[in-house]
Amino acid sequence: MDDRMQAQIRSWLEEDSGDELDADLENGEQYRVDTIESDSSVIRSPHETDTEQSSDENDADISTPATQQQRGRIPYYIGKDRSTKWLIHKPLRNVRTRSYNIVIHLPGVKNVAKNAKEPLQCFSLFVDDTMKDKIVLYTNVYITKLQEKFSRERDCKLTDAVEIKALIGVLYMAGLKKI
Predict the structure, then answer these.
(1) Among the listed residues 125, 137, 127, the one whose alpha carbon sits nearest the alpha carbon of residue 165
(2) Crossing angle, helix 161-176 and helix 129-146, to 10 degrees?
(3) Which residues have CB under 8 Å from 44's CB, separation 6+?
(4) What are phi and psi of 87, to 5 degrees?
(5) Cα-flanking dihedrals φ and ψ of residue 35, to 5°?
(6) Which residues contact 45 (CB under 8 A, 6 or more apart)?
(7) Residue 67: C-alpha distances to residues 3, 32, 85 (Å)
(8) What SS3 state is found at 104?
(9) Pairing between strand 85-87 and 74-78?
(10) How far apart are CA 132 and CA 79, in angstroms?
(11) pLDDT for 88-140, tens place per residue?
């Protein structure tokens, strides 16, 4: 198909305001053929696709796969819900799989996490005991600096690992419940 013929078809499609399509959809038309363009504009064909037609102007609307790839259009059907797109032609099978689409490692958890079955075990994979010990150590350093400002010892006590675990649990539940 030469450039002049393509320009003529584009001008015919641009002249169509789409009123015929809207009227057909209101009358109960369930399917129509559309094409996706690479610049994400959509051209809708008002022709029925259930019957075979042999006129030259209808052959010009749906082009051959080679020209579709050149222009970046892929023909598809619109489903009854008017949002699902179904491809008309099968995808090419003789295309080489790209190297970034090849799965090398199976999905799933790594060796250490395979044995963690309960939520506390899973959480301990992220926050281990050494991290908790450092939190306790640096919190107690801060508390000793503040003890000078208080007259009674019970107003500013040192913390331990159990209190830190409880604090992390409360913060986790508050985030989970979006409080």
Answers:
(1) 127
(2) 110
(3) 18, 21, 32, 33, 34
(4) -65, 140
(5) -130, 140
(6) 32, 33, 34, 35, 61, 62
(7) 12, 21, 21
(8) coil
(9) antiparallel
(10) 55
(11) 988 777 877 777 778 887 787 778 888 888 888 888 888 889 999 999 999 99
What type of residue is 11?
A: S
Q: How big, in percent rounded to 5, are the helix, strand and coil portions of the chain?
A: 50, 10, 40
Q: Give the DSSP letter of residue 3.
A: H
**What are the tens digits of pLDDT across the range 37-94?**
444 444 555 555 555 554 444 444 444 444 444 456 888 899 999 899 998 988 777 8
Neighbours of 68 (CB within 10 A): 16
Output the six-digit token pair for 147: 């003890």
